[in-house]
Write a structure and sequence with these properties.
- It is a single chain.
- With about 280 residues, the chain is mainly α.
- Helices cover about 75% and strands about 0% of the residues.
- The protein has helices at about 1-25, 35-50, 55-75, 85-105, 125-145, 150-160, 160-165, 170-195, 205-220, 225-240, 240-245, 250-260, 265-280.
- α1 packs across α10 (about 225-240), α2 (about 35-50) runs parallel beside α4 (about 85-105) and α9 (about 205-220) packs parallel to α12.
- The longest helix is centred in the middle third of the chain and has 27 residues, at about 170-195.
- It is a multi-pass membrane protein.
- GO terms for molecular function: branched-chain amino acid transmembrane transporter activity.
């Protein structure tokens, strides 16, 4: 059963991570290729403050806040860039984060941080906590999508210039999406750090950013349930088929290409197509 609970934790963290990127890229149309940097920021911040004796729930919240502040800085600095330039900028942030962490002894350098304090929970109890947090994030995503903020995000994603003509403050909403998305990524990072109890720079590299992006694209950009479905499948697939782990980047890259070529709306689009065809019969 320990293995089952470990998979449950993995799935929960993947769902939180992919929905956090969905807020930025799916809802608001801001392409980010460096989301793992915010995931790592949350993990490092939570682990370090916990080692100072701060209790674990507060440490995880602190990690989310630090990631949100980092997201605010990156988002504010990137307000004037969009599309391909934004993607390149965020990709650079990921490489910058990894390069910075590797050079800092107080962050463990290449070796990372060991001996992260234990939660005191059993694997089953911790998997329950992660599952509850993941459900909260799903409900949060659905709520935002159906509120005015979600409509503003959608308008910006469709046509930023047109959104400005109807008095939508695009800079404010783009920055809000960045802060919310990066805070949730930091939350996932904190949960990850206290599950594994060891973090190193390699866990938050560009490959991880592509993995998160693949879950969003394969699920259907902007779709909550599509992204949740893709997160479950893509996080479990390498665990069930071990040989895939060695070719993870190749697999995810291939899936990205296939989805963009044959089903740009991802799994959500395929379900919508099947549903429409079924109703016509």
């Amino acid at each position: 059963m320990e293995y089952f609970y470990s998979l449950l934790i993995l799935v929960g963290i993947s769902v939180i991570l992919s929905l956090s990127l969905n807020l930025i890229s799916g809802y608001c149309g801001q392409i980010s290729l460096g989301h793992a940097a915010f995931y790592g920021t949350g993990a490092y911040a939570a682990a370090m403050i916990a080692q100072l004796g701060i209790n674990i729930p507060i440490s995880i919240i602190f990690g989310a806040i630090v990631a949100g502040v980092f997201g605010f800085i990156v988002g504010f600095s990137s307000l004037r860039v969009k599309d391909d330039f934004l993607a390149i900028t965020t990709m650079g942030v990921n490489f910058l984060f990894i390069g910075f962490v590797r050079q800092q002894e107080w962050l463990g350098g290449e070796m990372g941080i060991y001996s992260i304090p234990a939660t005191g929970l059993t694997k089953m109890q911790y998997s329950l906590v992660v599952t509850i947090v993941a459900i909260f994030v799903i409900m949060f995503s659905i709520t935002i999508k159906n509120r005015w903020m979600g409509f503003a995000f959608e308008a910006i994603a469709d046509d930023e210039d047109a959104a400005e003509t109807v008095a939508i403050n695009t800079s404010k909403y783009k920055l809000t999406a960045f802060i919310l998305g990066t805070m949730l990524a930091g939350l996932a990072g904190g949960l990850y750090a206290f599950d594994i109890r060891y973090i190193g720079p390699d866990s938050f590299g560009f490959t991880e950013s592509i993995s998160i992006l693949s879950m969003v694209v394969v699920g259907g950009i902007g779709s909550v349930w599509g992204v949740v479905t893709a997160s479950i499948i893509l996080s479990l697939l390498p665990q069930w088929l071990q040989f895939i782990s060695d070719y993870k980047l190749l697999l995810y890259g291939g899936l990205l290409f296939l989805m963009m070529r044959f089903s740009p709306k991802g799994i959500a689009g395929i379900f919508e197509y099947v549903k429409t065809r079924t109703l016509k019969i």
